[in-house]
Predict the 3D structure of the following.
Amino acid sequence: MKRIQLLIIACLAGGLTPSAPAAPAFVPGEVWRDTAGEPINAHGGGILFHDGVYYWYGELKEGRTYLPKVNQAWGGTRVLAGGVSCYSSTNLYDWKNEGVVLPSDAKNPAADLACENVIERPKVIYNAKTRKFVLWFHQDSPDYQAARSGVAVSDTPTGPFKYLGSFRPDAGVWPINVTAKDKKPAKTNFLARDFNGGQMARDMTLFVDDDGKAYQFYASEENSTMHVSLLTDDYLKPAGKYARIFIGRSTEAPAVFKRDGKYYLIGSGCTGWDPNTARLAVVTNIFGPWIELGNPCQGKDAAKTYFCQSAFVLPVAEKSGQFIAMFDRWNGWNLPDSRYVWLPLEFSAEGNPSLHWQNRWTLKTDKR
Ligand code: DGJ
């Protein structure tokens, strides 16, 4: 008997009629499967839109979650780093696994990309001048004390990416908003402490402006202060111009977007894998001073960001005026089972963004 006949008999036996497949939709917090039926594995990720295709890059998290001895004091659980995964889509609902575009190194524990190390929050941008795809990520030691940025390049969005190495950004340069006090060495002056060797860089994102200039936002100074740092024209290094922003606010998980000439940043506080209250900020000059607007989340569980943490904000296919805020719902004791929560950004008449929980939602097809 053919499969279709079996299906009809099964449906009739159960008193059911065969129904059309469900229309695609975002279902925040549920297991999200790729086109092969496997759970999507791209955490702390970001999306590049290139030649009509979306590419979602993220952390490959596989295997057992454990608490390394060096992290026992603060409870920093982890899995062995799997590298950077990539998925592609043309409609943002259906994602094809394009494989691991920057694998971790299981053989050499001394390597930056050693699976014992940290490979987090990868972001890829395209450089129109060099025609290279440039990948930046948070590279770290298991105890998160190295706090470096790793960079890799590829000729194609699906890799393989060639690893160029890691560094602490902005070595030997004072930020443009430095004060005389900031330059004075003191026990808790991490900016001055790290002046020569480069600034600590943990959670990070990249942002490409309309003029093609690219910026790295990174949590620095022992996570107390964020830096926004201009990249060189090839996007491979810091250009030597940066500013301190959200000074002393311990903001991490930066996600940056631009709308109607203003830059916005959604971030979180610093509580490991545990959720806290999200933060929103706005500015007209990317180097600041940024103005904090409070928590963009509304409604139930808003104070805990719906048990999530920001990863990226995606402007949907250029000019449609829709933005998707991408969050991770971390599962600190089973990290591979961390979920994705994508929500539509809403904008007030004054242009202020906000977020509301949705059980299930779809993109608007109308244009702004
Ligand atoms: C919070 C950060 O936002 C994550 O990317 C990750 O580094 C965890 N801390 C580790 O505890």
About this structure: The longest helix spans residues 3-13. The domain at 43-356 is CATH 2.115.10.20 (Tachylectin-2; Chain A). The chain has one domain: 43-356. The radius of gyration is 21 Å.
